[in-house]
Amino acid sequence: MVSATATEKGDVRADVAIVGAGPAGAVAALVLARAGLDVVLIDRAPFPRDKACGDGLMPDALAALRALGLADRALAGARRLTALRLCAPNGTAVTIDGEFAVVRRERFDACLCEAAVEAGARFLRPVRVVAPIDDDGGVAGVVGETPDGEKVLVCARVTVLATGAGAGPLTAFGVCDRSQPSATAARFYITLDSPASFDLDCLCISYERSICPGYGWIFPGPAGSFNVGVGYFYQAPPATRNLRQLMARFLDTFPPARDLARLGGCASPIRGAPLRTGMSGARWSSPGLLVAGDAAGLTYPISGEGIGKAMESGMLAAEIAGEGLRAGRTAEAIADAYAGALEAKYLRRFQAYTNAQRWVAHPGLVDFLARRANAGTYVRRQIEGLVNETAEPGAILSLRGILRSLFT
Asked: Which of 167, 191, 257, 288 fits a 20 to 30 Å CA distance from 340?
């Protein structure tokens, strides 16, 4: 680690340093800056930048945007949808009502960063953070490097690590419990000249038999574009772990994906990314450090969705850091308060999803639940509750829930 007493020309000082300008980091910077704190947001990439993602915004993400007063701005030009279609391995489809949107991450992330800067946050990019500044075992800021090798020191009372699933930053800051991520996924875009030639007006997530226990998706976006992707979880991988082969199977065997691919259009390169799910693989805090978003494992098992929880964790980190700094609390007390709040708010839900990931690895069970969702009320109501976060996941994603679905 670098000594906290180290000084160099051009050192930056702030109340809070935030590493990673994705949804978690940008939202944390926005909330803190609005509260009047001195915030430095740091990212290794120039902005705007692309990000491998499904681009789908679920109800939790839309609620976070409304809470931040950014819904109209962030969703300008987005594709708004009112349904999610879940497709079982045997082809049975279950359509769930809800509020959804699709907007490319390049634009979405840039919008959140712009809002943070307008609120007063300083944005340093491209700067690659390589190490923390050590203060008697706690984190007192970060050491970064510009592309030309110039060192940048940002001294801060609190640091928020929102760097995504990669193990490198987590290891550098001493909070990595497992270097391997939980899952991996890849996506590409197909853009049609005549979007009406492909009739899909909902988010579509498929557990197509040829890739199960992997999963695939088709998310219709704005301007005739479709985000098409596949992924799998390391807990129960499919027969092939090659994402390109998995994508080829999905495009060959899942009827909507096959139809979309046959229409042609302009296709982008395939891009992949790791995921950390289930709130596992990293510690959520240490003195002077709060870990947010995908870095803290706040991506859901089963679906790989994480934008909403990234934004929520950024808000939570900002609220606890801001309150702690104003009250003069120690770095250790702020870290403990954040970890406790994260556990109380999310751990039970994420554990239920993690347990359910084992169930989803069995195609027959997914087929059964899809049939029951279309035949009865209990399973459909519980799935709608999961998607809209109005129901506890243990109600359906458990042995008791499976047994109840037999008769309701």
From this structure: 167
User: What token pair was written down for 267?
Assistant: 């296709």
Which CATH number is associated with domain 2-52+107-180+277-355? 3.50.50.60
Question: What's the maximum distance between 2 C-alpha atoms anywhere in the chain?
Answer: 71
Report strand pairing: 225-233 vs 215-220: antiparallel
| pTM given for the model | 0.94
Write the single-letter amino acid at 406: L
Q: Tell me which residue of 79, 78, 84 sits closest to 97, measured CA to CA.
A: 84
Structure tokens at 247: 């994508």
Q: What is the residue extent of each domain of the chain?
A: 2-52+107-180+277-355
Residue 8 and residue 124: Cα distance in Å, rounded?
A: 17
List Cα–Cα distances, 350 to 148, 182, 278, 320, 370, in angstroms. Answer: 41, 13, 5, 21, 22
Q: Is the bond leading into 48 cis (omega within 30 degrees of zero)?
A: yes
Angle at 276 between CA 18 and CA 83, to 5 degrees: 100
The per-residue pLDDT for range 172-188, each reduced to its tens digit, is 999 999 999 999 999 99
